[in-house]
Amino acid sequence: MESLTYTVDEVAALLGIARGKAYQHVRAGDIPSLRMGKRVLVPRDRFHAWLNRESAKSSGAA
């Protein structure tokens, strides 16, 4: 069964950005995340919805 969340490291790899940059975006609230104790997790469904919105913005679609 596939996990319902990504780690910030996994998100960084998926986006092709540095780990530190991914954490910056999480802290800024750009990338949707939730904190479970000391762990920061990114819900897959919210991440992909966010990514789709960002892709639509950069392609000029509404």
UniProtKB/TrEMBL annotation:
Any Pfam family hit: HTH_17
Lineage, broadest ranks: Bacteria, Bacillati, Actinomycetota, Actinomycetes, Pseudonocardiales
UniProt protein name: Helix-turn-helix domain-containing protein
Annotated source species: Actinomycetospora endophytica
Signal peptide: none
Ranges for domain Helix-turn-helix: 6-54
